[in-house]
Amino acid sequence: MAVELNVLALSLLFLLASNAKAQPNNGVFDVMNFGAKAGGKTDISQALMAAWREACALVSPSKVVIPEGEYVLSQVTLAGPCKAPVEVQVRGNLKAPADPSKFNNVPSWVTFQRIDHFTLSGAGTFDGQGGYAAWAQNDCKQSKKCNKLPINIRFNFVTNGLVRDITSVDSKQFHINLLGCKNLTFANITINAPDQSPNTDGIHIGRSSGIDITDSRISTGDDCISLGGGSQNITISRVTCGPGHGISVGSLGKYKDEPVFGINVVNCALINTSNGVRVKTWPASLEGIASDMHFEDIVMVNVSNPVLIDQEYCPSNKCNLKAPSRVKISNVSFKNIRGTSATQVAVKLACSSGIPCENVEIGDINLSYIGTKGPATSQCSNVKPTIAGRQTPLACGLIV
Ligand SMILES: *[C@@H]1O[C@H](CO)[C@@H](O)[C@H](O)[C@H]1NC(C)=O
Ligand SMILES: *[C@@H]1O[C@H](CO)[C@@H](O)[C@H](O)[C@H]1NC(C)=O
Ligand SMILES: *[C@@H]1O[C@H](CO)[C@@H](O)[C@H](O)[C@H]1NC(C)=O
Ligand SMILES: *[C@@H]1O[C@H](CO)[C@@H](O)[C@H](O)[C@H]1NC(C)=O
Ligand SMILES: *[C@@H]1O[C@H](CO)[C@@H](O)[C@H](O)[C@H]1NC(C)=O
Ligand SMILES: *[C@@H]1O[C@H](CO)[C@@H](O)[C@H](O)[C@H]1NC(C)=O
Ligand SMILES: *[C@@H]1O[C@H](CO)[C@@H](O)[C@H](O)[C@H]1NC(C)=O
């Protein structure tokens, strides 16, 4: 017993000693110790990169801290793989260069890449310093130039992580973009941009699975959350959206092999948005599948298209509307959706004439039209939904 204790004490001592040597800061790397200066005049990107490199190389969990204060930050990519879990805690307010030409046509401001077991936390702000001068260069309808404006925060191939408490404001393009991520939770996120700022989607998810977005507030000029091709097992709960274009799946059908499965949107509120919950696919599209999508317990306040499946989505009016979408939509439910519609057609299911929607369920809808043209209505094409519970308006005009 005594021997065992001694061995334990010795190894504990050894552990403490080696820890003390390897981590002089208990695994905490404050950017101020790497030359960062607050006050919003000197770029902290080099300091942040230096702190990141040390944190990422540590064999035990580590944390990079940006303390309270104002900072300017030019473009950075914080990349793994790292040796152990890393947290980046942003307590301060980070400001991007206001001038889009400072980004050298790389459409990213802060990128987190190839990191496993990652946490981004802190009550700090990522201020993209968009503004109408920058947004005016976002001319998606005329050219492809819009892709060149930077996205505030990118997560590329980040797995098993948590993003919490942060705020993103006035991104020049999308606020948060996910590509190739797995098992990430976004909690208590705030996103803010004016309702006239183009293409400033709140959170865009592509080719990612196991993503949860919860307890968050998003006000923006485009979709609050958009789920692009390859989004699988996504849960969105307790999110308030507005102004903005709503919570959207799509637009789908532009790329091959990007099936969408397992979307759950529950307990959300949409306020003053141009759409509520919608699924959109391009006409004349490639083949695709979007299935197992469920929208439940949603409150709409003055929403223009509260419930919408749009398989002829064509915002620029430059599509071939003669050929149908070839994205097959199936196993969809809209349940317990209530509140007010800003347009008379409160429920619209416009499915593909080539591949009708299958297994769509509508249950307990109570949407009233706030205008003066009469009661709310519902329009459907190429779909025969299953109807349950009370329906205002009558689903697809059917009396059940
Ligand atoms: C998902 O990520 C969280 C946070 O890192 C982790 O605790 C959890 O074990 C992961 N789940 C799976 C199935 O790997
Ligand atoms: C949510 O984030 C804010 C900072 O943006 C913080 O003050 C607040 O405590 C957080 N709420 C929870 C429940 O963690
Ligand atoms: C999605 O979730 C289902 C059920 O939990 C699981 O079987 C499937 O492997 C998951 N798919 C992905 C891509 O995470
Ligand atoms: C909706 O927008 C109108 C006009 O901008 C505004 O007056 C109203 O307060 C907004 N409603 C809510 C609930 O925010
Ligand atoms: C409804 O939204 C429209 C903009 O879509 C706005 O002009 C109007 O003031 C809003 N009405 C209410 C009652 O909030
Ligand atoms: C839709 O649901 C049915 C019944 O639950 C299931 O058999 C079918 O595989 C689902 N379709 C897709 C494309 O997942
Ligand atoms: C529908 O909502 C209205 C208020 O918007 C409410 O008066 C009515 O009771 C609701 N109907 C049902 C069946 O819940």
From TrEMBL:
GO biological processes: carbohydrate metabolic process; cell wall organization
InterPro entries: Glyco_hydro_28 (IPR000743), PbH1 (IPR006626), Pectin_lyas_fold (IPR012334), Pectin_lyase_fold/virulence (IPR011050)
Compartments reported by the entry: Secreted, Cell wall
SUPFAM superfamilies (alphabetical): Pectin lyase-like
Active site: H245
Keyword Nucleotide-binding: no
PROSITE patterns: POLYGALACTURONASE
GO terms, molecular function: lyase activity; polygalacturonase activity
Pfam short name (any one): Glyco_hydro_28
Its EC number(s): 3.2.1.15
Keyword Cell division: no
Alphabetized UniProt keyword annotations: Cell wall, Cell wall biogenesis/degradation, Glycosidase, Hydrolase, Lyase, Secreted, Signal
Function summary: May function in the depolymerization of the pectin in its walls during pollen tube elongation, or in that of the pistil during pollination.
Protein name: Polygalacturonase
Organism: Theobroma cacao (Cacao)
